[in-house]
Specification:
Layout (H helix, E strand, L loop, with lengths): L49 H18 L3 E9 L8 H7 L3 E5 L4 E5 L3 E5 L4 H15 L1 E3 L9 E5 L11 E5 L2 E5 L5 E9 L7 H15 L15 E5 L2 H16 L5 E11 L6 H11 L4 E7 L2 E7 L2 E6 L2 E12 L4 H13 L1 H19 L2 E5 L5 E4 L3 E12 L7 H8 L7 E2 L1 H11 L10 E5 L5 E5 L3 E5 L2 E10 L5 H18 L11 E2 L1
Parallel strand pairs: 1-5
Antiparallel strand pairs: 1-9, 2-3, 2-12, 3-8, 4-7, 6-7, 6-20, 8-9, 10-11, 10-24, 11-19, 11-23, 12-13, 13-22, 14-15, 14-21, 15-18, 16-18, 17-18, 20-21, 22-23
Helix pairs in contact: 3-9, 5-11, 6-11
Length: 514
């Protein structure tokens, strides 16, 4: 077995502190007596079965020597529940490689990397699947924790183009804390065993990292402060983008495609570097009903609060959603109800959402025995926007040979973020948009050793690097789209991230100081 690009001591993770030695006898102390007490977590001792973890490490060492390749050793155990928001500040303080996923159904907080999986080009989904399948088959796991715990985390760029983050980056975290849909919380610890140098102390180091992370948990991060001198610039400028919308509508009128999703950027520059935990904490507090996510690597972080699931696969059943069309929330209950009814009755919105629904239904029918789609969409209400929404469910026809990444590759990009028909529209968008989307609208999520998992579409998002935040928003253009209305829709979609960055307002043409 070959694990690509493994760094057994990834940068930014803690080294073994005093009090944990290489003999690993019994349960290791991890904090001084002055540490604060956290409900649900013993701040003095974390009851990890070190002999059991060492036994797993020994088996992985034997497997590694037999195969002459690196092998993963993973220990899983249930722990008392901990609020994922309480882990945000500790995890980013301890590592430059971090993953955050907090949805209404589950959460994953992960730090460090035991094994990286990086791919490029159009075959990046299949490449990650093949590499992970080989690694998972030969990995050695132990402990009383559940097998279906997330094991691999990360995501993919919208298109296979080089950027600050790889085109496809998924990895096995050294420390992972996951809450499942039943409310159970699992701690997973992973190390990579080198056949030429099976370092037993790696077990001590990862246990120390877990102790430090959980014992430091407590309280949500403070919101980002308002900083004078912050500047905001729309790109492309409003007039240019409205002209682009008009061009897309003209192409639709000529029959070139049925729908095109056009994106734009908002570039926010701050006098100080952005604090990722503060941004995520604000999103968690304000954007209920969404999946708050972050992928951080090499000094870059891609973060957001997306309302859209791409696909999940659990126990042989796949689930996706058709999410399209937007309308703001009302200032009063009466206005809110009126806008809600207007969205359901709006012909342009219904047509836009139906394109997405039809594509998802067709894709599911290729791999499912049965597919369930409601006859009519319903309205998904979010804090500042609402969308038309339909759930798509299916029973996988060949669950033994179908990975969640097969479904991700089949569905991405849906017409909700690309267009229809797919290839012609994407070719036109690539030539028309004046920037690369990076990870915006790409798949972000996690999977387990059974090739099941959950991926979201990375919307309402931003790329953070030092004091620069690049925000993204898009609109679906169909026949009859009004450029002025579409422009205002993008500005509404920027607002959740602007609030998280403490940017209260910007000029009508984009440029200006907050």
């Amino acid at each position: 077995m070959h694990l690509p690009n493994i760094d057994p001591h990834p940068p930014g993770t803690d080294s073994r502190p005093p009090g944990i030695d290489s003999r690993l006898a019994g349960t290791a102390p991890c904090l001084p007596d002055t540490a604060p007490r956290l409900p649900g977590v013993d701040p003095y001792l974390l009851d990890i079965d070190l002999p059991g973890f060492l036994e797993v490490h020994a088996k992985a060492t034997a497997e590694s020597r037999n195969s002459a390749s690196r092998t993963l050793a993973t220990w899983r155990q249930e722990i008392d529940p901990v609020d994922p928001a309480w882990l945000l500040a500790p995890v980013f303080a301890r590592t430059r490689r971090a993953f955050v996923w907090v949805s209404p159904e589950s959460s994953v907080i992960a730090m460090g990397s035991a094994a990286d999986f990086v791919e490029r080009g159009s075959g990046r989904f299949a490449g990650i699947r093949a590499s992970w399948e080989r690694a998972a088959q030969n990995a050695v796991a132990g402990g009383p924790g559940r097998r279906g715990t997330p094991s691999l985390v990360g995501g993919f760029a919208f298109a296979p183009r080089p950027g600050p983050l790889p085109e496809a980056l998924m990895w096995v975290p050294r420390v992972l804390v996951a809450r499942d849909r039943d409310g159970r919380t699992t701690l997973a610890l992973s190390v990579s065993v080198d056949p030429g140098n099976p370092v037993q102390d790696d077990v001590a180091e990862v246990v120390a990292q877990a102790c430090g992370l959980l014992s430091a948990a407590g309280g949500r991060p403070c919101p980002s402060p308002y900083l004078a001198g912050t500047t905001v610039t729309e790109f492309p400028p409003a007039a240019e983008w409205k002209a682009l919308v008009a061009r897309a509508a003209d192409q639709i009128g000529r029959g070139r495609f049925d729908k095109a999703v056009l994106a734009r950027q908002l570039r926010v520059t701050s006098p100080c570097p952005y604090d990722v935990p503060s941004v995520l904490g604000s999103l968690l507090a304000a954007q209920s009903g969404t999946t708050v996510f972050a992928v951080a690597a090499g000094g870059h972080a891609f973060v957001g609060a997306t309302p859209e699931r791409l696909v999940s696969l659990h126990a042989g059943r796949a689930r996706s959603m058709s999410l399209a069309a937007s309308m703001p929330r009302g200032a009063t209950p009466a206005e809110d109800a009126r806008l809600r009814a207007a969205l359901l009755e709006d012909d342009k919105s219904r047509r836009e959402q139906q394109v997405v629904t039809d594509m998802l239904r067709h894709a599911f029918e290729q791999v499912c025995r049965e597919v369930s789609v409601p006859a009519e969409p319903h309205v998904l209400d979010l804090p500042n926007l609402r969308h038309l929404h339909s759930r798509v469910d299916g029973e996988i026809a060949d669950p033994e040979n179908t990975s969640v990444l097969d479904l991700v590759e089949r569905l991405h990009p849906t017409p909700a973020v690309g267009g229809h028909p797919r290839k012609g529209t994407l070719d036109w968008i690539a030539s028309a948009e004046p920037f690369d989307r990076g990870w915006y609208a790409g798949p972000v999520g996690w999977m387990n050793t059974d090739q099941e998992g959950d991926f979201a579409v990375a919307l309402r998002s931003a790329h953070l690097h030092e004091g620069t935040a690049t925000l993204y928003a898009g609109c679906g253009i169909v026949a009859g789209s009004d450029p002025d209305v579409e422009l205002q829709e993008t500005r509404l979609k920027f607002r959740p991230m602007l609030n998280a960055l403490a940017v209260p307002a910007y000029g009508p043409d984009g440029a200006g100081t907050s």
